[in-house]
Specification:
Pathway: Cofactor biosynthesis; riboflavin biosynthesis; 5-amino-6-(D-ribitylamino)uracil from GTP: step 1/4. The protein is of the alpha/beta class. The chain is built from nine helices and seven strands; from the N terminus they run H-E-E-E-E-H-H-E-H-H-H-H-E-H-E-H. The chain has a seven-stranded mixed β-sheet, with helices on both faces. The radius of gyration is 17 Å and the shape is globular.
């Protein structure tokens, strides 16, 4: 049973936008995108989540905004780790949404909600042969503890209740729908596969039904 199937119905919270800050973003292809970063007060969890709205300066933004829920990944987003595809997905999202209009929600959910130190401990178990979900369970942690209630709250505060969702993860769409967001289309992200992250991506496709076209399996033994 998924998190979305067990969660309570959406509740009204006394949340509000705390501040909106213009920030030009330099992309790795050399382009610059105008963005606005929104902070929040009173969300249903205490994380310092950020909404990055993009493409608002375009004369013809898509009437249904494109939205990406991106979970924080220090190793991938900042350090360029090749063990995951988080960094390339974040850059892709900013570039694509800057073209069509919409936002990236940068959610403080390191390691699918287990935190940075635990994620690095899980990496050691993965090096010993565990897959990414089994490693979490070996540490007596949930395979994926992320809840997207705060993301739905952020979208409502931004007036984005009807969206196209940029994701390969069906659970994100299911949870947003459960929390009252109308996901009219799911737009797949790119598949950024390397020899370092292939087994990780294969596991996501096998265990949580991520829509990933990966070609031939790597053949690594998973515990």
């Amino acid at each position: 049973m998924t998190v979305a199937e067990t969660m309570p119905a959406t509740e009204t919270v006394s949340a509000k936008i705390r501040a909106t800050v213009p920030v030009p973003i330099h992309l790795n292809n050399g382009d610059t995108v105008a963005a606005r970063l929104h902070t929040f007060h009173g969300l249903s969890d205490p994380g310092e989540h950020i909404a990055i709205t993009l493409g608002e300066d375009r004369p013809d933004p898509d009437p249904v905004p494109l939205v990406r829920l991106h979970s924080e990944c220090l190793t991938g987003d900042v350090l360029g780790s090749a063990r995951c595809d988080c960094g390339p997905q974040l850059h892709e999202a900013v570039r694509r949404i800057g073209t069509t209009g919409g936002c990236v929600l940068y959610l403080r959910q390191e390691g699918r909600g287990i935190g940075l130190y635990n994620k690095l401990d899980a990496y050691l178990l993965q090096d010993a042969g565990y897959d990414t979900y089994a490693a979490n369970e070996e540490l007596q942690l949930a395979p994926d503890s992320r809840d997207y209630r705060a993301a739905a709250e952020m979208l409502r505060l931004l007036g984005l209740t009807r969206i196209r969702l940029l994701t390969n993860n069906p659970e994100k769409a299911a949870q947003l729908a459960r929390y009252g967001i109308d996901v009219v289309a799911v737009v797949p992200t790119g598949v950024f596969v390397t020899e370092d992250n292939r087994f990780y991506l294969e596991t996501k496709a096998r265990v949580t039904r991520h829509t990933l076209a990966l070609g031939e399996p790597a053949g690594r033994l998973a515990r």
